[in-house]
């Protein structure tokens, strides 16, 4: 057994938690269909994950907790709110944003509105290239 000093242990926990949270969002971005019940389950699963983390580690606040919560809450946005949200949340990848538009609004908006939102995502991505 090798003893790991507490500061080093905390850094390792922080990186593991951050990676797990980023992986959760990436997993949600791979969803092909999502009902209201599915969205509620995403929130419930994440809350369970946080409860278990709080028992395992003393790291507070939980790294990237808001990153996951914000993404899940975006599934509930309306078309008008989604356009504003996309422009305000550049921390998410193009794939993650595109999935939100396709999955959560895909069946509720017309093709023209969907194309407008996808164009907003593409415009946001252009300066990075």
UniProtKB/TrEMBL annotation:
Q: Which InterPro entries match?
A: Syndetin_C (IPR019514), VPS50 (IPR040047)
Give the organism, scientific name.
Answer: Rostratula benghalensis (greater painted-snipe)
Which terms does the UniProt entry file under GO BP? endocytic recycling; retrograde transport, endosome to Golgi
PANTHER family in the record:
SYNDETIN (PTHR13258)
Question: In what residue span(s) does the Syndetin C-terminal domain sit?
Answer: 3-122
Record's Gene Ontology CC terms? cytosol; EARP complex
Organism superkingdom: Eukaryota
* Name of this protein: VPS50 protein
GO molecular function, a single term:
SNARE binding
């Amino acid at each position: 057994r090798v003893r790991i000093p507490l500061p080093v242990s905390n850094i390792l926990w922080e990186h593991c938690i951050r990676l797990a949270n980023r992986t959760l969002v990436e997993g949600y971005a791979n969803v092909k269909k999502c009902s209201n019940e599915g969205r509620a389950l995403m929130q419930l699963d994440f809350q369970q994950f946080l409860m278990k983390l709080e028992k395992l580690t003393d790291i507070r606040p939980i790294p990237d907790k808001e990153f996951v919560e914000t993404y899940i809450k975006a599934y509930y946005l309306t078309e008008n709110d989604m356009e504003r949200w996309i422009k305000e949340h550049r921390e998410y990848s193009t794939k993650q944003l595109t999935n939100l538009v396709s999955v959560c609004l895909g069946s509720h908006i017309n093709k023209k509105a969907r194309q407008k939102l996808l164009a907003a995502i593409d415009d946001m991505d252009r300066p990075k290239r």
